[in-house]
Design goal:
single chain
């Protein structure tokens, strides 16, 4: 004799006990997927921003080099008379404002690129667009500083030549030797320093 009908066990209770666990797993999966999406978006946005910055940096560098070469060609021409210097530095002065602007912009862009490279998160594998060697940052910063020093010397030279143009011709040669020649000597030293630094920069974006 039995106390009552036999009850056949079912899996209903098991289903109920597994529901919270299933919801937990789904929530974890959704969170992981969301995290992956966020990381992917961060990569895409950062790559886009790097590309824009890199293109602007390259464009400004080309413009700066073109202006710099024009100024250097004028200054390094075969200037034999005081009138040659007056004419040459009048041309330099015409280019100076644009060169100042390009140099300032290039310095700002390069500082931004360097800061962006230094602020990379742990998941960033490549350096800034894979174009900069970390060891090149210091050398390139030094190059920009020396270029800035040469630019300031050029402005001083231009001012000296402008003042010389106001003098009687018989006084110009003496003035040139006393006021301009020392600046030209300083510039020569800085140019040699610039060349030496340029040779030490590892192969990469800036050469």
């Amino acid at each position: 004799m039995t106390d009552g009908p036999l009850r056949i066990p079912t899996k209903m209770g098991d289903h109920k006990s597994h529901k919270p666990m299933l919801r937990y797993v789904v929530a974890i999966g959704a969170a992981l997927l969301l995290g992956l999406v966020v990381v992917a978006i961060a990569f895409a946005v950062e790559e886009h921003n790097d590309r824009i910055l890199g293109e602007e940096l390259d464009r400004t560098e080309v413009e700066l080099k073109v202006l710099g070469e024009q100024i250097t060609d004028i200054k390094d021409a075969d200037l034999q008379s005081m009138n040659d210097y007056i004419s040459a530095y009048a041309q330099v002065e015409h280019l100076q404002s644009d060169y100042d602007q390009k140099l300032r912009k290039y310095r700002e862009l390069y500082s931004l690129a360097r800061k962006r490279d230094a602020d990379r998160g742990f998941f960033i594998v490549e350096r800034f667009r894979s174009k900069h060697h970390p060891e090149a940052w210091e050398q390139m910063t030094e190059i920009i500083d020396v270029v800035g020093e040469i630019n300031e010397l050029t402005k001083r030279e231009t001012a000296v030549i402008h003042a010389m143009a106001l003098l009687p011709e018989q006084e110009r040669v003496k003035f040139w030797h006393e006021q301009f020649a020392p600046l030209a000597a300083q510039e020569h030293v800085l140019r040699e320093k610039l060349t030496a630094i340029g040779r030490s920069v590892p192969r990469g974006r800036v050469q």
